[in-house]
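Checklist before submission:
- one chain only
- standard amino acids only
- sequence pasted in full

Submission:
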Amino acid sequence: MIRAVAAYLAVLVMSVLPAGAGTLSDPTGPVVLTVTGKIGNGNTSGVAAFDLEMLEAMGTAEITTSTIWTSGLVTFTGVRLAKLLEHVDAQGSTLEATAINNYSIAIPISDATDDGPIIAYLRDGKHMSIRDKGPLWIIYPYDQSAAYQTELIYSRSIWQLDRIVVAD
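Returned file contents:
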């Protein structure tokens, strides 16, 4: 009887969750990024927590660009912001991105295009320390277009990123 009730409740819960909800694996290493808010896919109640290995497993993207914070061309490697949002089934229109030091900035989800920003975890092939703007840094392809060379875009290039809230 207890097994039948448990099975019934499991089916009931699964029928009201969005497709893919709760299907992320659990992080096995230190959590470097949490995504909350209007998401349909997580690994705990309302949260998608990621370690570096999980971000790397989503597929890599590279942007080689100059920045106002570094000298010369730098190659950043990470996961496309669009890919991460797809992975968590983001359902809002704005991202509230926050850094370790609580710096926070709103980023429209419309920025998350296939050739737009990445969440970088490597700089010239090396993991970034907190002291070196890591472990995660939102990088836009600044050299690709003058549209990416504005104070607004620079303000969205948050380093030491550790959490994102998906909102309306």
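Reviewer check: The chain has a mean pLDDT of 89.
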